[in-house]
Amino acid sequence: MVSPEKNPRTATQTCPLCDGTGWKSVEEGGPASGGTGERRVVRCSCVAEVQRTHLLQAASIPPQYQHCDFDNFATNLYREQPAYNQSLEQARLVCQRFAEEFPVNVDCGLLLMGPAGAGKTHLAVATLRRLLEKGLECLFCDYQDLLKQIQASYNPIAQTTEMQLLEPILHAPVLLVDDLGSIKPSAWVLDTVGYVINQRYSQRRANLITTNYLDSYPPAPTGRVRADTPDTLADRIGVRIRSRLYEMCRLVPVQADDFRRRVKQADYRF
């Protein structure tokens, strides 16, 4: 038998089991175990590892979030406010179940909604990484950064067009949009986000979305006057697109104080 050619894109070149070919020879069980005792060629385990590495790199997860997983997501931080701990634990369970069951028993994405610093991006990235480990193609997208890149593409000297930037966003099997609504809405912003959401909706592609903007806010305490009314998510992306997200995503509330501020004060790294 002619040995398969080495393929550095799908196998570890230094793998002692396959010598970088991506294939290894194994012996069938002997007659005593019901086998033939013959040898056959199978895919080496290093192939899956290399593919996972490629998928992780292609996902473009920013360095500051690459450590995020479910195991290091703390849910017992707030001794004086146990409701926060319960919210974090429930959010983690929902995200874990989504990652475990996707794509078989999942027909929608997740919208993680809560105040800044509550851990939404950590959970979303942990979910994304679990899907990458399963061999699924995923992509991390910062909402604000994407819109700025698209605007820059309109410059006559730009080497990247708007559609070239949007191509991976539109077609990624699983897309994580971080910080949805972080740019003040304009007609152009609403048109752009509407186009992306509608295209992914029509193609039935999965989305993981985080946002600091709620659908509604509790009234000001009795006797107090709220200086200004915070924007809702519908204010930031438009009523029509918010309605579309109701169809596309399960809402996952993440209610807690700003953990980043707590970490800085305690000099503790999450």
Give the mean pLDDT. 84
Structural class: alpha/beta
Count of beta strands: 7
CATH class of the largest domain, named Alpha Beta
In which order are the strands of the major sheet placed? 4-5-6-3-7
Annotated CATH architecture of the largest domain: 3-Layer(aba) Sandwich
Apparent shape: globular
Largest sheet: 5 strands, parallel
Architecture overview:
The protein is built from nine helices and seven strands. With 270 residues, it is α/β, with parallel strands linked by helices. The protein folds into two domains: 58 residues, no CATH class; 199 residues, P-loop containing nucleotide triphosphate hydrolases (Rossmann fold, 3-Layer(aba) Sandwich), CATH 3.40.50. It has a five-stranded parallel beta sheet, sandwiched between helices. Strands 1-2 form a two-stranded antiparallel sheet. Strand 5, helix 6 and strand 6 form a beta-alpha-beta unit. Helix 2 runs parallel beside helix 3 and helix 5 packs across helix 6. The relative contact order is 0.14.
Key structural traits:
single chain, 270 residues, alpha/beta, Rossmann fold, 2 domains, five-stranded parallel beta sheet, two-stranded antiparallel sheet, 9 helices, globular, disordered N terminus, disordered C terminus
Helix and strand topology:
Elements: E1 23-27, E2 39-43, H1 45-58, H2 82-101, E3 109-113, H3 120-133, E4 138-142, H4 143-153, H5 162-171, E5 174-178, H6 187-202, E6 206-211, H7 233-237, H8 239-248, E7 249-253, H9 259-266
Parallel strand pairs: 3-6, 3-7, 4-5, 5-6
Antiparallel strand pairs: 1-2
